[in-house]
Structures are given as C-alpha cells and as structure tokens.
Design a protein that fits this description.
This protein has about 350 residues and is an alpha/beta fold. It has helices at about 10-20, 25-30, 40-50, 60-70, 85-90, 105-120, 135-145, 175-190, 295-310, 315-335; strands at about 5-10, 30-35, 55-60, 75, 95-100, 125, 150-160, 195-205, 215-220, 225-235, 245-250, 255-260, 265-270, 280, 340. A hairpin with a 3-residue loop joins β9 (about 215-220) and β10. The chain starts with a strand and ends with a strand.
C-alpha cells in the first residue's frame, strides 16, 4: 500500500526525514510526498528541488495544502510552539501524524493532542529516533532476558559542547527541554519502568554560550524501586561523551557499561565468598530485530506498520507523554528546588 504524505516544516531537520525515506527502499516504495508546507515558501521550494519532489503542492498555509493534497499522513517537523496547531489541523483533515519531539510545549497541550487523536481515530506519534539504535536495543534485550538479575539502577552521563547558534542558544531549559528527553525516553524504554518522581538541579555554568539551563543533574524514581540518575551539560568542552550518553546499568547480580558508541562491558557475579565476589564477563546480545536499529527510518517504518495493523506505534503519544512528563517534572523540580511527583 502507498501512503501520501505532506511534510510541514521544511528546515534542516526535514532533510533527515526525507533522506531516511529516500535511502530506505521499503519506505521509498510506499511513501509519496504530495505536499510541502513552510512559513517561508522559498525554503519549501528549495527542499523540493533538493529531493526532486517536482509537482508537489507547496504553500505557507497548512490547511490549504492539506485540502489540496489530501494526504494520509502528516510529517510534523515544526518548532515546538507551532506543534499544537499543526497536529490538530492534520488530525482534523483525517491524517495520521508523526511529529518531531517534543510532543508538546506543556503536559496540558500534550493531553489535548491525545484527546484529538482519539476523537479523530488516528495515530499521533513522536520521532524518538534514538530509541532505534543498536546500543539501546541491545541493552533492552539484555534487561528483558534477566542477564543482570533484577534491574536496580540506570545511570548516565551526557557531556557535549555543541555550538548550534540560532534558537537553541536562546531557549529556556535548553538541555532538559531540547535534548534530555532522548535520554529520559531511552531510560524508560530500556528499563520498561514508569517515572514516579524526580529531584533536579539545573544551572547555566560559567562560560556557557546558552542563555539558560545548559546543564542539569537529576535523580528519578521509577516503578519497582528502580533509580535513574542523569548528569548532563551542553557546554562541556574537552572530553565529549556520545550523543547517546555513557551508561551504567546495575542489577542484582551484575553491571553493564556502555560508552554510547560501540564499547560494551558486562560482568555478573559468579563467586560465592570473599570481600568482593568474583565476577565473570558475559556477552551483550544483538538486537532482537535488525529493522529496529536505523534511527529515523525505523521510526517511520514502525509508524507505517502501525497504520497497516491498527496497533499503536511504540512511540505513540499515549506512551511518549510519559517521557515528556519526566522533562517537565525535572524543570518543575529545578524551578522550585524540591522533589516533584510525576503524573503524565
């Protein structure tokens, strides 16, 4: 089956979406871009030329383009402040909607979008593309297999110094709101647990080129007595971690380390005496499904599969709102200097 797609928001991030489709035969064969929308028409026209999308509807008014193109799916790649209007318009036109993160600019808005999707009988999902990489999938499988015993903790470090320029350097809570949701969502997915509460300290270190909130430290309480700790900075020069963070996963009988790149180390206790029990290295399993390790392409593929089967996609808004709640819980905790209960 072929699906017609309109893409709204034709800036730099849109290229990643279209490249994922163009480079993945299974997606290219079943998706046809029929419209582009951007506040700057020339930006949409440039994108059309770059990806050889001649003949598509192009405009600055999403309602008009959707009416003309009559797509099955809307790709929403706009700035977060415009998300509510774009998603609501897409759903009103009978489209399934796949959005960039974050799902919304507030939990109230996210809940509203959940309601609109339910009324429309359509899916609204979020591109949490960093779930769909080999490292995350391998850790998830190892925890599901019980190789480390009962899960007790997830601990990660995220330290990078990107100089984006543009809107990010002027954002409030830039690290928590724009980047940390990837790590928070990964922690939820890896652990299979729900967030219950958080204590977070946020600051803007000396020398930061961001206006606000370039660094944060957070302790999350997850269900089943699992703890998730996060240390992060977007103005840490000199020794960068991976974009996926560096992870330590602890269980009742062992520990897994992942550097966020290709290095894994896992050890379980095999000794029965001594001050420190003897440990033995174990392997980290490969992902259960090779189709789930290709970032954007995997997210889009799973979204299309959900439309075909009627099953909710893995990153459906009904699930992703829990990751968004972690972000806003952390922001609320940092603002008030106290532990905050998380309620999606």
């Amino acid at each position: 089956m072929t699906y017609k797609v309109v893409l709204c928001g034709c800036g730099a991030m849109a290229k990643g979406w279209l490249k994922a489709v163009a480079d993945t035969p299974a997606l290219k064969d079943c998706l046809t871009v029929v419209g582009l929308v951007d506040l700057d028409r020339t930006v949409a026209e440039t994108l059309s030329h770059e990806f050889d999308l001649g003949g598509v509807a192009i405009g600055t008014d999403i309602d008009a383009v959707l009416s003309e193109a009559k797509p099955d799916i809307l790709f929403d790649i706009v700035v977060p402040e415009a998300r509510r209007t774009v998603v609501a318009t897409g759903l009103a036109h009978g489209c399934h909607v796949l959005s960039e993160k974050p799902m919304a600019v507030s939990l109230a808005e996210a809940r509203e979008l959940l309601g609109l999707a339910e009324i429309a009988g359509k899916f609204h999902a979020v591109v949490q593309n960093r779930r769909y990489i080999a490292g995350i999938r391998r850790i998830r499988r190892m925890i599901e297999d019980g190789a480390l015993g009962r899960l007790t903790g997830l601990h990660c470090d995220f330290f990078l110094g990107p100089h984006f320029g543009g809107f990010r350097e002027q954002m409030d809570h830039v690290l928590l709101l724009d980047m940390a949701i990837h790590t928070f969502d990964a922690a939820r997915f890896i652990s299979g647990k729900d967030p219950l509460a958080v204590y977070c300290q946020e600051h803007n270190p000396p020398g930061s080129w961001y206006r606000h909130g370039a660094a944060a430290n957070a302790i999350f309480e997850l269900s089943d007595d699992v703890v998730f700790t996060y240390r992060g900075s977007w103005c840490a020069e000199g020794s960068p971690t991976s974009w996926e963070s560096a992870w330590r996963i602890t269980g009742t009988i062992g520990t897994l380390l992942w550097d966020g790149f290709d290095r894994f180390e896992a050890n379980i206790v095999t000794g029965t005496d001594g001050f420190f029990r003897e440990v033995t290295p174990i392997g980290v399993p490969i992902p259960a499904n090779e189709a789930d390790i290709h970032g954007h392409a995997s997210v889009i593929g799973r979204f299309l599969a959900a439309i075909r089967t009627g099953d909710r996609p893995e990153t459906d808004g009904s699930d992703n709102i829990k990751s968004l709640a972690m972000v806003f819980g952390a922001i609320d905790s940092a603002r008030h200097g106290k532990r905050v209960t998380i309620a999606a």
